[in-house]
Amino acid sequence: MTDRRRTLAMMLGFAAAPEWVRAATEPLKIAIVDTGNTGRSLMAETLLRDMIRRRSLHVAVISRGLDVDPFDEAPEQHAATLMAGRGFDVLAHRARALTAADVRHADLILTMTAKHAASLTATYPQAKAKTHPLALYASGTATDVPDAWGKPMADYQAVLAQLDQYLPLALDKAVAGARSSTGT
Fold this sequence. Notes:
By secondary structure, the chain is of the alpha/beta class. It contains eight helices and four strands. Helices cover 51% and strands 11% of the residues. Strand 3, helix 6 (114-123) and strand 4 (131-133) form a beta-alpha-beta unit.
């Protein structure tokens, strides 16, 4: 991406790409973060990718975990079942831990809980301004999306209901914020 920005900037007569060129060529980058990246964040990423595709938005999304278990990287069965019920096959997903590069490159980091946000910003204080619990960012309510790991299907369905409520609001807010910061 950097080479394309540099080439575009040089074609326009700039020594380096100004912010408006970057904004025009790079997507808005959203990272969704939870504990193990096998349930909540995986479902959120899957749903958000579909919303982005259906709306033809210039947004990229990833999901990551703060405490990924290298011995338990596969999607949680109930999460995979719920996603399959909506037409998404997530079985190839493998959990990935959040890295400093993920934090540096993300424009917005949405966590499943306030505790996730606090833990993330304790490790990466430079990310404080762009890190928010999902529900708080989307609706202003300090509600966590609880961990359903190891719980019955009803708990996963409750998580999915929260994601259905908060993700469209969060996406709308993020896109509106990106447009206002670039003047488009």
